[in-house]
Structures are given as structure tokens and as C-alpha cells.
Write a structure and sequence with these properties.
Elements (H helix, E strand, L loop, with lengths): L2 E9 L2 E8 L8 E10 L2 H6 L17 E9 L11 E4 L2 E2 L19 E2 L11 E5 L3 E3 L6 H4 L2 H14 L6 E5 L3 H12 L4 E5 L3 H9 L4 E3 L6 H9 L3 E6 L4 H9 L1 E9 L12 H6 L3 E4 L7 H12 L3
Parallel strand pairs: 10-11, 10-13, 11-12, 13-14, 14-15
Antiparallel strand pairs: 1-2, 3-4, 3-8, 4-5, 5-9, 6-7
Helix pairs in contact: 3-4, 3-9
Bound molecules: zinc ion (2 copies).
């Protein structure tokens, strides 16, 4: 029996790196990939909370943000050959439900997700059906290739928000997703961009990524600072944290007609928001879940950033 190392979720907050059986190609459309790199998502950390903020089946190998190299292909695989560099679309949709058949397949209730219901990328190898794979350009380095999935998720949010150069923006939470949002907002040419983040290190990172203003929402009055520095609040607010209180703070930073996008998610978070503010100020509140046909867009952006554009 060939073996490999893998990080297995054992339930109740436990993640063990251990030797397991190496997966094999068993179906005609299977592709065995050697994992090149995998990144750690906030949702992986939520899975490991007790109680969990997100569900994964005990016994599964975690990791849904990863790329790799084709090792072996099933008899029906036509698009990939051994040695090819590929990235994994981590959500396997059913293609038959009401959402899948009406253009909302990212919301498929029957989806099977790598690293949650099916063995994922925190391992040396992973078997992935051909339909879940896309070519990853050779020039993209490993650390960026592993970020394709989160970037694809951010691009889904960006399409919903449709920022313009007239917009002022605030983003809560400067983890990898928040920082990715800064870069994306800059590409869309937004007028002003502030970030709200409690960690000084992350605030510094945000400024390096192009934020105009970095505020500590635990110590400072965000609205007062925006009014002092800019003379205005925001057209767009992104919540890339997903803990309850941010919802209320975010609503308070929006101008009339503003739009709030909630990206971070934690099943245990609750929030109190006065609904009258949403009515009176004609706010739009939206969620954005996973990637939605945005992997090709993310790959293009990675290529562009690689070219220094
Ligand atoms: Zn993720
Ligand atoms: Zn479906």
C-alpha cells in the first residue's frame, strides 16, 4: 500500500497530521494530482473551533484552496496530462437542482466540497474529477496559485458590488481576504479606501497593499475619523470578518444608498442592527458565497499581477 502524509480532521477541534493511504484513480474521469501548495482559509479555522463555526465531516482531509500537478489520469480524461499544472474548483455541484439549473450553482444545496465532505488539499495527493480542474499558467508561483480559490470568491463579491471610481470604500478585517479585497478595489479604481482592523500588524499590511487609511475600530471612532479625514462616509462597506457586531458598525458607516457586502461567515455569530436605518437610508445588504464562475477571472488577474500590470 502506498501512503502519504495528510492533515485529517478528527472532529471536536482536532486536526492530526498522519500517514494515510495514498488515493488512487478509480473512475474514468478521476485525476490524481500531487498537491503543489494549499492555503489555510478562515473557514478551516472555524471548522476547528469548538463548537465549530463551520461544518466538516470528521475523518476528512481538510484544505479547499490548493493547486497541484497531474500525476495520473483516468481513461476518460481528455483535457489534462501528467505533469500539467492545475487548480481545483473546490465545490462539486449537483447540476440538477433548482439553483444549479438557474445560474446560481454556487448555492447548490447538494454540493460536495473538497476539504469538508471530500478529502481535500492538506495532503501530498488528492483525486479530483476532471470537471473540477482548470489549467494554471506555469508562470504563477506556488504561493499565488494556492490563492486562486479565495481570489475567485472575492471576484464573486466584486461583481455584486460593482465598485466605480466614484466610490469610497471601507473594509472590515485584514486577513488574507481583506487584503485581497484591497487589491481588487484598487484595480476597480475606487476613490478612497479605508480599512478597519484591530491588529497593528495587519493594519500595516493593509497600508502596504494600498489602503489610504487604517483604523483600529476597537479604540477609535471609525465614523468620526472618516468624517474628519474625508468629510464623508462610505458608498461601499465590506465585512470580511463575519462576527456579529461588525454588521452594526458597517451599517453605521454607509451613506444613503450605500451597499454592504458580508463576506466573512461564522455560524455562531449573531448581530443586532436597527432595521429602520436600512429603510431610511435605502441601504442594500448582500451576501457573497464562494466563487461563482469566477475561477477564470481569478486566474487572469493572477497572470496580470505576475506581469506587473
Ligand atoms: Zn476558503
Ligand atoms: Zn445543485
Amino acid at each position: 500500500m502506498s501512503t502519504m502524509l495528510a492533515a485529517v480532521f478528527e472532529g471536536n477541534g482536532v486536526l492530526n497530521v498522519k500517514t494515510v493511504e495514498k488515493p488512487r484513480v478509480t473512475k474514468p474521469d478521476d485525476v490524481l494530482i500531487r498537491v503543489g501548495a494549499a492555503s489555510i482559509c478562515g473557514s478551516d479555522l472555524h471548522v476547528l473551533h469548538v463548537p465549530p463555526g463551520q461544518h466538516a465531516d470528521p475523518g476528512v482531509i481538510l484544505g479547499h484552496e490548493f493547486f497541484g500537478f497531474v500525476e495520473e489520469t483516468g481513461s476518460a480524461v481528455t483535457r489534462f496530462r501528467p505533469g500539467g499544472k492545475v487548480v481545483v474548483d473546490n465545490i462539486m455541484k449537483c447540476h440538477t437542482c433548482a439553483y444549479c439549473t438557474t445560474g446560481m450553482d454556487n448555492l447548490c444545496p447538494n454540493a460536495v466540497i473538497f476539504g469538508q465532505q471530500r478529502n481535500g488539499g492538506f495532503a501530498q495527493y488528492c483525486v479530483v474529477p476532471e470537471a473540477q480542474l482548470m489549467d494554471m499558467p506555469e508562470a504563477i508561483p506556488s504561493y499565488l496559485a494556492a490563492m486562486t480559490e479565495p481570489l475567485a470568491c472575492v471576484m464573486n463579491a466584486m461583481r455584486k458590488l460593482n465598485p466605480t471610481p466614484a466610490d469610497t470604500v471601507a473594509i472590515f478585517g485584514m486577513g488574507p481576504i481583506g487584503l485581497t479585497f484591497i487589491r481588487a478595489m484598487k484595480l476597480y479604481g475606487v476613490r478612497r479606501l479605508a480599512v478597519c482592523e484591530m491588529s497593528a500588524v495587519r493594519r500595516q499590511k493593509a497600508l502596504e497593499c494600498g489602503a489610504d487609511l487604517a483604523i483600529d475600530p476597537a479604540r477609535e471612532d471609525v465614523q468620526a475619523i472618516l468624517l474628519r479625514e474625508w468629510g464623508e462616509t462610505c458608498d461601499i462597506v465590506v465585512d470580511a470578518v463575519g462576527v456579529g457586531p461588525v454588521f452594526g458598525q458597517a451599517v453605521g458607516l454607509l451613506k444613503c444608498g450605500g451597499r454592504l457586502l458580508i463576506f466573512g461567515q461564522n455560524a455562531n455569530a449573531v448581530s443586532q442592527v436597527p432595521p429602520a436605518v436600512i429603510v431610511r437610508n435605502e441601504l442594500t445588504v448582500m451576501g457573497s458565497y464562494c466563487a461563482h464562475n469566477t475561477f477564470p477571472l481569478a486566474i487572469k488577474l493572477l497572470e496580470k499581477s505576475r506581469a506587473g500590470a
